[in-house]
Amino acid sequence: MEPRHRASAEQSEGADLSTSPFSARVFSLVFGLGYAAAVYINYPLFRYYPLVKRFSLHDLADRTLGPAMAWYGWMAIAAIPALVLSAVVPNRWGNRIPAEVFWILPFVMLLAGWYREQSWFH
Amino acid sequence: MAIALIGAITHQGLTVWRKHGPAELFINRFRAIPAVRFATSITVLYVLVFALGAYIYPTYVLDVKGSIADYGMRKTVGLFQIKEHVAVIGLALLPVYWHFWRSVLLTTAIATRRFLTTFLMLGVWWNLVIGHLLNNLKGLI
User: Fold this and answer.
1) What one-character DSSP code corresponds to residue A68?
2) Of the residues A67, A104, B36, B60, which has the fewest C-beta atoms closer than 10 A?
3) CB contacts, 8 Å: A105 with chain B
4) pTM for this structure?
């Protein structure tokens, strides 16, 4: 069997997302843009203080608590709308999102990350 | 798990750049295995490695980042911070990466599939190298 035919046969063995209620394109786009926005404006859903193992919805700004981690909170605030929309938006609509969008998305996220962290490099 | 992930994504990343033709050289035989086989394994491994990394991350922040920051190595801390964003970029791309490998015909969207796979491969390598360098640096200071 030719490799290309073999690969196509193997592809059809897997689950088909086009028939699943979950829209991968919607999830990736909303999660990626949500994370980029949350990082850019520094708006995590919560912060974690690993030294005292404590979560807080607000920035406690207390040095005795040790460093605050916003990373989990940025992901959480992006994941909520991504999960909801990827379940609600029909897959046939989600599949209309052009593939080229996913060429730009990682660079948008990277730029937001660079904006947040650039002070470390000055 | 991280080594399995880097092996699988490197294999697939090199395979998507292979030109069609007989695989005579070792590097071509290495890349001749159908790349679609790896998509599900890579997705599962990435999620597992990410979850494990997220679990141990607080310890890493306190021990490694704290030590490096105490020595005033700000650019090194910056690299550490970029690493966390690169990991999330990979996580964000993962559903659509899987979608383009398993739900979109392999004869279409070839460039997008190649881009997503290459980006994921470079991201995994970046995080592995930076993570190890920083961990080793912490051992030196």
Assistant:
1) -
2) A104
3) 92-93
4) 0.86
Whether A68 contacts A51, CB under 8 Å = no
Q: What are the tens digits of pLDDT across the range B53-79? A: 999 999 888 888 878 888 888 888 898
| pLDDT for A49 | 95
- Measured in angstroms, the CA of B116 and the nearest CA of chain A are apart by 8
Amino acid A30 reads: V
Encoded amino acid at A88, one letter = V
What's the rounded Cα separation, in Å, for the pair B91 and A48? Answer: 20
Instruction: Report, in angstroms and rounded to the nearest whole number, the Rg of chain B calculated over CA atoms.
Output: 17
The CA-atom distances, in angstroms, between B91 and each of A19, A90, B48 are: 22, 22, 11
CB neighbours of A106 closer than 8 A, spacing ≥ 6? A32, B89, B92, B93, B119
Q: Where are the domains of chain B?
A: 2-140
Helix (H) or strand (E) holding A47: strand A47-49
- Which of B85, B100, B108, B120 to probe by mutation at the A interface, max A CB count within 10 Å? B85
Q: Which residues 30-69 on chain B approach chain A with CB closer than 8 angstroms?
A: 32, 34-37, 39-40, 54, 57-59, 61-62, 65-66
Q: Test A102 with B112 for CB contact under 8 angstroms.
A: yes
